[in-house]
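Folding Problem: From Residues to Backbone Shape
Fields: amino acid sequence; protein backbone structure tokens
RECORD BEGINS BELOW THIS LINE
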Amino acid sequence: MEYDGILLGMGNPLLDISAVVDQDFWNKYEIKPDNAILAEDKHLPMYDEMAAKPTVEYIAGGATQNSIRVAQWILQFPGATSYMGSVGKDKLGEEMKKNAQDAGVNVHYYEDETAPTGTCAVCVLDGDRSLVANLSAANCYKVDHLKRPENWALVEKAKFYYIAGFFLTVSPESIQLVAEHAAANNKIFSMNLSAPFICEFFRDPQEKALPYMDFVFGYETEARTFSKVHGWETDNVEEIALKISQWPKASGTHKRITVITQGADPVVVAEDGKVKLFPVIPLPKEKLVDANGTGDAFVGGFLSQLVQEKPIAECVRAGCYASNVIIQRSGCTYPEKPDFA
């Protein structure tokens, strides 16, 4: 099978800037342990301050980009994955591009000249983390970039597509173009519910894309919000997964499969009017380092087997493997080679 460019992701690229800081730093910027916030003006100087630290690490991040990097890592076929999103025309954008390319991903960023590259400060103190995200250029993606011949060629080459729900806030038009191409050409299109606020406040563009989704991923809290928003009057994740899988489709070529993760509880998979549960890999609490990015990693692992046309059970197994690796490390990072057999 030809794997070159088989999987294309689109989303909001953020460069994770991770560094060990001290208590004075936390006090200065009024940040708390195990918290994630959007940057306010008072937080903006922290990025340069962290960049100057000897312990600083740069990791290409953002939900879809994390999933694509993990899929690429497990696949180990250079250039099997491609990715598009918006960065600033700056040093951080170059850093992210290098990071993603070193991971084997074929990145085609839109470079916005009006805003800096989106960043997420990962402030580490005594093993605790505080995340401060500044979206900036990630918010500026334009559908015109997708339509450029060299970028649309990536769409035409791919057979599988993955887009996190966060991109609905930026370029629903781009999502729709790719979704319609997938349906017209018998390809596999997948998205993630991503966050409760997406299901609540971006319901219209989400519903417009849903008929095209062959795979719907999500976490239990998002699934329950989706149910509430649509008046389903059930909190049962299995029932919700089943209802999402039975939502009308734009193309009858592929059935829809819903995959919902529940942390340490089994993964819920709904297809063909039935629900299956798959146990996750148990992990002692003392081995849990950082849960940030584990959902993204699950999707990346799942996709790595899906593009190889492996059975769903094997896709879930790879997803559980990937999230188990990432949760034991700082940030969405992984060893040089996977040991997934």
Q: What stands out?
A: The mean pLDDT is 93. The first strand starts at residue 7 and ends at 10. DSSP finds 13 helices and 14 strands in the chain. Residues 195 and 222 are 6 Å apart (CA to CA).
